[in-house]
Write a structure and sequence with these properties.
alpha+beta, Nucleotidyltransferase, domain 5, 8-stranded mixed β-sheet, two-stranded antiparallel sheet, 14 strands, 27% helix
């Protein structure tokens, strides 16, 4: 079961990797914004980054042990994904000093944002995006899920705008920018904090809210281009059905402390036993045949949001 942790975000990275290959993009940053968290990964020279261990359960969950987030260490192979607690359902709140924060608490799918009108009472980044006009006020799912802009405006005015002495639009845009700032932590964790120059990378944004924030984030990070896959809200799902496979065989050996005179060349190396490998190689993989789609990705410069 431990291998299933973060398998959903990893599937989204695999989908972005396939899109990057199809578009001839060698260096890219993947950005996946969901309801509770935002995830980022890096593609360099056309290849995914992987590691033998990663952290979960911290304010910034990531693979690299060079940047320790204080989470739980899990020593299994994983795709390099950094994750922060900021998403579409992240709650905007004021601390005792009157400073505005976003997340890590989330309204979730139930009761959800105030605009869902399903019992949610705390303002979220989705409510702010609706007030700003970034989300179609006619509703989601082709109008099957109506959104209540008036309720979002009233909650945002009462909880953020009036306490901070702002107009409604200033408060909404402040929540939007603060959400961007929080999510950019994940992007920087896999790039600039490891010595990469983001000006050399393309941002691939997907997930339920990724395209809403992609161009603003790309502009702030000085990235030259943002790419939006056609089925961006569901990019992770199909790639989970036919991902590339690999097998990792590890073994544990307990031995006495080697003497100082022992040379590295004479040190016995641990290798998998034939009993451990019996029946597990080569791996047998069954995959559904992927369907073809005529849809094409949308590319946009940071200054011009995709149409």
């Amino acid at each position: 079961p431990v291998f299933m942790i973060e398998s959903g975000p990893a599937a989204g990275v695999i989908a972005s990797h396939a899109l990057a290959r199809a578009q001839g993009i060698l260096n890219a940053i993947t950005f996946d914004m969901g309801g509770t968290t935002a995830k980022a990964s890096i593609i360099e020279n056309g290849a995914l980054n992987t590691a033998a261990e990663y952290e979960v359960g911290s304010a910034l969950s990531l693979v690299s042990r060079l940047i320790k987030g204080g989470g739980h260490l899990i020593r299994v192979p994983a795709i390099d994904v950094a994750e922060v607690g900021a998403g579409g359902g992240s709650i905007a709140w004021l601390d005792a000093g009157g400073a505005l924060h976003i997340g890590p608490r989330s309204a979730g799918a139930a009761p959800g944002p105030v605009c869902y009108d399903q019992g949610g009472a705390e303002v979220t980044s989705t409510d702010a995006n609706l007030v700003l006009g970034y989300i179609n006020s006619d509703g989601l799912v082709g109008g099957g899920m109506p959104l209540h802009r008036a309720k979002a405006e009233e909650a945002l005015r009462r909880q953020v705008a009036e306490p901070m002495g702002m107009t409604l639009m200033e408060a909404a845009y402040g929540v939007h920018l603060l959400a961007n700032s929080s999510m950019m932590r994940a992007v920087r964790a896999v790039s600039t904090e490891r010595g990469r120059d983001l000006r050399d990378y393309v941002l691939i944004a997907f997930g339920g809210g990724g395209p809403l924030h992609a161009c603003e984030m790309a502009r702030s990070l000085e990235m030259k281009e943002a790419v939006i896959p056609p089925p961006s809200p569901a990019s992770s799902a199909p790639s989970a059905c036919w991902p590339p496979t690999s097998s990792t065989i590890t073994s544990r050996r307990i031995s006495r402390r080697l003497r100082k005179s022992t040379s590295p060349a004479s040190t016995p190396r641990s290798r998998p036993s034939s009993a451990m490998c019996a029946g597990c190689w080569p791996p047998k993989v069954l995959r559904p045949k992927p369907s073809r789609s005529s849809a094409t990705p949308t590319c946009a410069t940071p200054g011009n949001p995709p149409s």
